[in-house]
Structure formats: C-alpha cells, structure tokens
Design brief:
Elements (H helix, E strand, L loop, with lengths): L13 H7 L4 E6 L5 H8 L10 E6 L2 H14 L6 E3 L4 E3 L5 E6 L16 E4 L7 H8 L12 E6 L8 H7 L10 E6 L2 E5 L5 E8 L5 H6 L3 H5 L4 H7 L16 H8 L10 E6 L8 E7 L2 E8 L4 H13 L8 E4 L5 H11 L15 H5 L9 E2 L2 H14 L18 H8 L4 E4 L2 E4 L2 H5 L3 E2 L5 E2 L7 H12 L7 E3 L21 E3 L4
Parallel strand pairs: 1-7, 1-10, 2-5, 2-6, 6-7, 11-14, 15-17
Antiparallel strand pairs: 3-4, 4-5, 8-9, 8-10, 11-12, 12-13, 16-17, 18-19, 20-21
Helix pairs in contact: 1-2, 2-3, 10-11, 13-16, 14-16
Length: 509
C-alpha cells in the first residue's frame, strides 16, 4: 500500500514573499483566503534548531486559536515537536518552544512582561489596539545573534475591527507594497529614516487567487464572499478598506483615526479635566484628564456618591500639597447637581454653574457672524459638542497617548463608538445635535422616513472628552466667591444665581 505524502510549503506569490521577508516587522494584509495563517505557522520553523528560539502566535480568543492549533498539528510533529495542551506550547527536540496564546482583553498582553521572544506572530492583528503590538515588540530579544528576531502580522481590512485604522495607517498608507522601509518613533510620531537608523518594516498584499490550495479545493468560496454586505465584501473579497460616514455624523471616522494614530500635531497647554457624573444604573462616571491638546488619562467608576466625587474633584484641583494644579469642568445637570452643591459647600473651590438648557457662551456664536452661514446653537451642550467637532476636523486633538503602554486606556474603542454615534441637523444656520437621551433609545424611523441611529447606552466617555476639550483652553481666573445679588445679570460665567458664604476661590470647575 502506497502511503500518501502531504507536502506543505509556501505557495509562489504573496505567501512565499511573506515567509521569505527579512524585515524585522512584516504584515500580510488584504484579501481573505490568501494563506496568511498557515504562513505564520511556517515562519517560526526558520530557527527551530536553536534552543533559545522562543515563539508566540496570538489570536483574540481561544475559539479563534483552535484554527492555529489545528494547523500546527499538521506540521510541527514532523519536526519532532511535542504539544502540551495544558500550556498550549510546542517543544522541539532542540529545546525551542512555540507558545500559542490569546488575549481576551488587551491588558492581558502584560502577562508577557519579562518574556524573551525571537518570533511573534499575530493573526488578524486588526482585532487588537496598537499598544498590544508595540508592547510585544519590546519582547523581541535574545542573546544569540544567529537567531532572527521577527514580528509577523496578518489582517483583513474589516471596517468594524478596532485596530484596522492604525494597521492600515502604519503599513498600507506608509509604504508601497513589497518595499522595505526603516522607521523610528520621535515624540510619539512614526518617522521614516535611513537604513541602519530604525527598525525595518514591510507589508505584503494577501492575494487569494495565488493560494491554489484554497481555490482548487473550495470552488464556492468566491461566491460566498460575494454575499457579504458591501463594506465587508470590499474588505474580505477585495482586501480594500472602505468606510462610509453618514452625512449627518457629527465627527467623522477619519478625523478620529488621525487623532489616535499620532497624525495630529501635539500642542502644549495647561492641565485640565472633563467629567461626566453618573449615579445609578449602567452609566459610568468618567473623568478625562489632559495637558494641552493631549488627554493622558481616562478614569471610570461604576458608582460614586456626590460627596466622594466632590472630594475627588477637589483633590484633582489641589493635589496632595494643597496647591492649585489643574482646572476642569463637569456636567452639573441632573445627578451632577448634587456634586456641584457639595463643591460649593467646600468653599475653597470656585464652582461656576451654567444651565445647559437656557444658557450658552455668547462668544462662541460670534465666531460665525462673518461667515456665509451664521450658525446658532440651542444651548451650551450643543456648543460643547460642536467645538469637539471643530477640533477633531482641524486636527487639534491628539489621542495617541492613550494608546501607549504608560497611558493605555482599555476602553478607547468604546469611546470611539460613542464619539462617532453623535449626529446633527442643520436648518438655515440653526444647529441641533442629538442628546444623550437620544442615543440611549433603540434605532427608529421618524414619520418623515428618516432613520435615526442609536448607541443604545449613555455616551459617558464621549461627554467627558467633550467637556475636557471645552475647558482645556479656558484658563481659570482669580476670583472671590461672594453673595450674588438678586439683580445680578445672567451670563455664561454664572448661569444660575447661587448664594453662598464669602470665600476666596482658588480654582474653578
């Protein structure tokens, strides 16, 4: 009886180029079915004769990892490797090891802190935020110079995946396909440099038609891809990144991506915070802190009482040494009113309050007096969200710090979802922007046939970001808290008449 022999080798074209690449950092991106995952498992075998060779192949979930386990089962035993189901690790006769892992949460990547790896393969890298890959690159180290230190990534331009934008910016929009470039990071910006001055980088386009094993054995695969919705069809069938923003979307996805991926200029300025307070239910209390145009920390709480939140704000303002160090703002309507009252009682915090329903900043509308369309806003909440739109559009917000290891914000994808959920209507210069209550409701269709999108929850993270952006360039003044006479004029600085004991104000919120 003749024994059937299975030959597994890289196929000519993209798969072969990916496996043969000598760049430290190489990504195979594009169409589904190009043989990307199989290539990841083959590349590890380069230096399997060295005992110091340690590899890690990652997927997002354990269910996803099962496909990689199955592929390695076809290959690695032929090299004498033994698999430990408990450790998810292949051990080769030389002592080389290949670990198969998954990250349910991006912060799980820090369990690899201290590891020494010579090979890292990440399948469907666009399912991860940038920080995960940047941190893992620091694990590429080994005292044996004969072993190549390689980072290999694969991905499909799924517009719904959290990391698609940064992956395509880093590779497809930066380098021609197949070209090797050299890059370093300066002031958190990705800079191309001469050979020898940076890390080598390359990307290969995944071409399904070159994967004859796939195409010959799955004749209906192409037809199945054609059944996908338009954006997913472009991504999986054609390897094309496409995103269509609703014309009424307040902030566009391209603006957000530029802010996250370090494309916007960093600007210095005072420290400030913006807070959205929630007391009960599934809502979050969120505090966004930043300096200049860069948020550097976002904190969330499920519940915090009015007095405790007020003390937190006071401590933020004065710090441990009791000296003023930051100013900020928060939503004092509804549950926030209780926090405001507690701040007033503290005395040494100047708490100005603006009624967002009746009052607004008159200077904000004045910007449009000489424009063709003179915009008018219903209240200060609309002004705050419109300023967020203006600053995103002009590239005046830099969110890249929140993607770094030191300032990593694990819910950045949820903040993005909330920011991009806001929509607006314009009627002869009158601007109406949806509220948090509008975004809580399910999707619906109005009587005129217009579809109204919904987030399905309160946009707490987006509101905290917007409030921070509103107050960050509004420096606090030196003020005296005192009785407000009955004949006091209503204005933006003091939206509600508030009586309290005379105390010297050191800061404001």
């Amino acid at each position: 009886m003749v024994k059937k022999v299975e030959i597994i080798e890289p196929q000519p074209g993209a798969q072969w180029d990916f496996v043969a690449s000598t760049a430290t950092e190489c990504a195979m991106l594009g169409e589904a079915g190009g043989g990307k995952t199989m290539a990841l498992t083959l590349i590890f075998l380069y230096d399997v004769a060295f005992k110091e060779h340690n590899g890690l192949i990652l997927r997002r979930t354990y269910k996803d990892l099962e496909d990689i386990i199955a592929k390695t089962m076809r290959i690695y035993p032929h090299f004498g490797a033994k698999y430990s189901e408990q450790k998810h690790c292949w051990t080769f006769p030389s002592g080389a090891k290949c670990w198969l892992g998954y990250l349910d949460n991006d912060k799980d990547v820090f369990r690899y802190d201290g590891w020494e790896l010579t090979y890292i393969g990440i399948d469907e890298v666009n399912q991860f935020q940038k920080m995960v890959v940047m941190f893992l690159m620091t694990r590429l180290r080994c005292p044996n110079p004969a072993i190549k230190k390689l980072l290999r990534l694969t991905g499909i331009p799924n517009p719904n995946a959290v990391g698609t934008a940064w992956v395509w910016d880093r590779y497809v929009k930066t380098l021609p396909e197949g070209e090797t470039g050299y890059f370093t990071t300066i002031n958190n910006k990705d800079i191309r440099v001469e050979k020898g001055q940076g890390v080598s980088r390359q990307w290969i386009f995944s071409n399904r038609k070159q994967n004859r094993v796939q195409m010959d054995n799955n004749p209906d695969y192409e037809l199945n891809l054609a059944l996908l919705p338009e954006l997913l069809r472009l991504a999986y069938k054609d390897g094309t990144l496409a995103s269509y923003d609703d014309p009424d979307r307040l902030i566009l996805s391209d603006w957000w991506d530029a802010a996250v991926n370090g494309k916007n200029t960093t600007k210095n300025g005072p420290k400030a915070f913006g807070m959205d307070y929630a007391e009960l239910g599934d809502d979050k209390s969120v505090n966004c802190e930043g300096q200049g145009n860069q948020p550097y920390r976002v904190t969330e709480w499920d519940f915090m009482s009015h007095p405790v939140m007020a003390r937190f704000i006071r401590d933020e303002i004065f710090g441990r040494n009791g000296k003023f160090q930051i100013h900020g703002g928060f939503d004092s309507v509804g549950t926030g009113a209780g926090v405001y009252t507690c701040l007033v009682d503290m005395g040494d915090v100047y708490a100005e309050r603006t009624d967002p329903i009746r009052y607004k900043d008159p200077n904000f509308d004045k910007k449009y007096e000489d424009s063709i369309i003179k915009y008018h806003f219903k209240n200060v909440q609309s002004q705050i969200m419109w300023k967020l739109r203006e600053d995103f559009q002009a590239g005046n917000i830099d969110l890249s710090l929140l993607c770094t290891q030191e300032n990593y914000y694990e819910n950045l994808d949820k903040m993005k979802e909330e920011v991009l959920s806001f929509w607006y209507r314009e009627d002869r210069g009158d601007i109406w922007i949806c509220s948090g209550e509008d975004l809580r409701r399910p999707d619906r269709t109005l009587a005129n046939g217009n579809k109204v999108p919904s987030l399905g929850r309160s946009p707490d993270r987006a509101k905290a970001l917007a409030i921070w952006n509103w107050v960050r360039d509004k420096a606090p003044g030196s003020v005296i808290n005192k009785f407000i006479p009955d004949e006091a004029d209503y204005n933006f600085e003091m939206g509600n008449k508030v009586k309290r004991n005379p105390t010297k104000g050191k800061a404001w919120v």
